[in-house]
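User: For documentation purposes, I need each entry recorded in a consistent format: the amino acid sequence on its own, followed directly by the corresponding structure tokens. There are two entries in this batch. Please keep commentary to a minimum and don't merge the entries.

Assistant: Recorded as requested. Entry 1:
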Amino acid sequence: MAIRNIRVDGDDVLRKKCKPVEKMTERLSTLIDDMFDTMYEANGVGLAAPQVGVLRRIVVIDVQDGNPLTLINPEIIEEDGEQIGPEGCLSLPGLQGEVSRPNHVVCKALDRNMNEITVEGEELLARAICHELDHLDGILYKDLAIDGLYKVEPVQQEEDYDEEYDDMD
């Protein structure tokens, strides 16, 4: 498993439509593992294959509910309600924007064993599913931001913590 480079806004790969996965291969299985590692390293809740330069319809999501998801060839088959809230993206670091998304979605996909699954999500999970599936069609959340984007402080990783200053109370 490895940490992959996350492509950032301006990279053409983020605007391309991804191809469906026809069969699971060792290479794709490794990609999925790497995507989870990369997402966790970057403190994200979701990552789509094009964000690591692979034009395949694969996303990984973990909203810290104890149920990390791998969605292959996903499609939203039902949505309802509305939520408007801040959204960010690992491919647009340090930025956020207010985006309207469904509050509830039902998504049909294949899992990493190529078995059909149905995932139902509300609130953050619904937002993450919609956001990551947009990546598969070359859509970035900034395209949907209601009033444009604004800067935010990047999430500080634990490794950046400097214990040298702990005793300076």
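Entry 2:
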Amino acid sequence: MVNVASLGAISSLESVSRYQNTQSIQENAEQSGKTRDTFDSILNSALGMLQETEDYSNAAEVEEIKFASGQSDSMHDLMIAQQKANISLQYTVAVKNSAVDAYRTIMNMQF
């Protein structure tokens, strides 16, 4: 004779294990979404950094034109604008080099 109570216990365990797998899949999907969001935020940050570098470069060029045409007598403002543009460009190049090195490292990995 088959014990009905034990079959009921087994079927309830199966439903729990299916729930855990579903929950695990949902957690993986959420984690994948977080990874995608993280990558998006990093990419947007990099694009923002490029725009900021371009803005500093344009501001330095405007200051150079003002100083050369005599509209501004402030060598101080010119030097500050040039230094901001230079430092921003150096930082952008350093970040780009780090990203390229990381890409090369990933591509050289063997699976």
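Summary note for entry 2:
Residues 4-69 form the longest helix (66 residues).
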